[in-house]
Amino acid sequence: MSTSDVLVTGVGLALPGVDGPADLLRTGPTGGEPQVDPAARLGKRGLRYKDRASQLALCAAADGLRAAGLLTDALTVPGTTVGVVASSNLGNLDTVCEVADGIKETGVDGISPMGLPNASSNVIASTVAIRYGLRGPNLMVCNGATSGLDAVHWAASSLAAGRAERFVVIGVETDNRYVRGLLGDPAGQLLDGAVALVWSGPTRPPHAGPPAAPCSAGTPGRAGSTSAWSGWYPKGARRRATGSYRKATAPAAGSPGTYPGRTSARCSAAPPARWACSRSRRPSAGSAPVSRTPAAGRW
Amino acid sequence: MPILIGTGLRELRSAELGWRDGAAFDVSELHFGTALRERFGAVRTYTFSNACSASLYALAMGSDLLAAEGADTVIVAGVDTLTESMYGLLDRVHMQPPDQVRPFDKDRKGVLMGDGAAAIVLRRGDRAAGSAVRPAPVGLRQLRRVPRDRAGRGRVAEALVGAHRLAGVKSEDIDLVMLHGTGTLLNDEAEAQAIGQVFGAHAGNPLMTAVKSMTGHTSGGSGLLGLIVALSSLASGRVPPTVGLREPVEEAAGFRFVRGEHAEAALRLAQVNAFGFGGVNAVAVVERAEK
Fold first, then answer.
1. C-alpha closest to that of A222 among A197, A200, A239, A204
2. What residues of chain A lie within 8 A of the CB of B68, using their CB?
């Protein structure tokens, strides 16, 4: 696998008992650390009605964007150049279950309409985009245990396709009574936190912090930490990068045989010339080596 | 063969039933990879939860896979079944319960949701010698998505412009627009304004239709459903009508809606709109396959 020009320019963390990336290297028992307090980090303004996962994601994204030099009082680059890929599995289960309870107990008239945005699972990615003015592509990955690395993959893929110049990649899960109930009351502490990486494509942003060493697109150094904390997740999906098939014969749903041969796609966007990385394998393929560790920040 | 699934609500209905009613629930089945693996032996699957533009987002990601990874074939799907929480919350915010989805009509009352799924197979075009200089013989040209903030209806226009630019077409080239057209008060006006802004003097050129008037809003599946209808229309020259549209809103007064019965026309380029909660906007442009 060749390396690419994709850089990790910022890391943001919203994890219990973790003040900065260096704390991730700490060894020792975990558990009992104070929960992240988004209001203390971001101020209360704008957090009302936001679900817990979105609040945690906002914390991590803010720190990541600041570390990358993309956010001061406002965004330092055009919003259209920054996309978001967020990942979560349990993110809005609290809203969904709470509303379902509310409907049973009080009927529809008794539930708060403010829950509506949170009932859609993409609320995390869109909340981050709206708050920080990130108007590039906005993708929410809910793909089981591999979601964090999948998010890394799709951000790299979208950078390569030229869909944006930078991406904030977020992983977030929450711990609450709904999640615990649905997971069958697992023993021990579930993670209630978020992490964010900021990726920059081949053109280095003028406001970015100190240069980071390039890392391979599919396996960005320590970016695996975005999903490492979902290790408790029960049925990890492990898939191999797959070969491809020459022939596509499956018809479009509902209209058997109508379109084959007509609807195959050709994408008009070629990857930028400077994109040198072969990304033929997904990052979680297991055999893909971590080529380099980003030097900057020592995270 | 990668399978990409766009969905608004994934398997959240099962979570509701599991939490509240004690039904069997496995958190690994919140995404569709588990079922696809069990049923088809699929090994590479992605579930994207991107609200009502989810399946067009999946299409965009799928087209990137074809372009960048050397994959020959990608399956792109969209699916949603309604959750009680979403149904209840939509019910809560509707002033009057709508009895029909009437996109772009002055008397529209709101949206009704529909369950549904759609899937297509994306295949790399056969690249014969010299074909690169001809227009691509088939398919998807490009997609562009831009989040829309609360203040910014202009973001929809941004998405339309971006899609045209990436597809290498001008708005006057578009023969058919598959509108997002949910029948909600805000969407339809915003969508009509954006089209008016981007198409300018050509806003009256393309045929336009909103199939949610017949299917309801199939949420994460709706973009792909619109795309499939568009492809069918391009191939057959027949465009289904927007049922229930009697008097269009002012912003859409100059549009060439297909009304009453289907229309017939020779069509080459179609545009498909899909906009979602939180301002996730996707627009696809497709071209008729030459025989």
1. A197
2. 157, 160-161, 271, 279
CB crowding B164-181: b at 16 or more within 10 Å, else e? bebbebebebbbbbbbbb
d(CA B26, CA B79) in angstroms, rounded, equals 19
Q: What distance in Å separates residue A19's CA from the closest CA in chain B?
A: 30
CB spacing of B12 vs A104 below 8 angstroms: no
Q: Which long-range contacts (CB under 8 A, 24 or more apart) does B14-18 make?
A: B15/A93, B15/A96, B15/A97, B15/A182, B16/A96, B16/A97, B16/A100, B16/B83, B16/B84, B16/B85, B18/A182
Please count the other Cβ atoms lying within 10 Å of the Cβ belonging to residue A282: 25
Q: Which is nearest to A83 in space by CA: B63, B61, B147, B57?
A: B147
Give the pLDDT confidence score for residue A218 in this predicted structure.
32
Task: Give the residue from B87, B23, B285 showing the smallest Cα distance to A266.
Answer: B285
pTM: 0.81
Find residues 121-140 of chain B whose CB sits inside 8 Å of chain A: 121-125, 136-140
> What is the signed CA dihedral for B261, B264, B268, B272, rounded to 10 degrees?
0
Does residue B29 or residue A299 have the better pLDDT? B29
Residue A276: count of CB within 10 angstroms of its CB = 16
Of B43, B86, B142, nearest to A240 by CB-CB distance is B43
Give the C-alpha separation, B235 to B266, whole Å: 9
State the virtual CA torsion across B254, B258, B259, B261 in degrees, nearest 10.
160
Q: What integer pLDDT is reported at residue B123 of this predicted model?
A: 85
Predicted ipTM of the assembly: 0.91
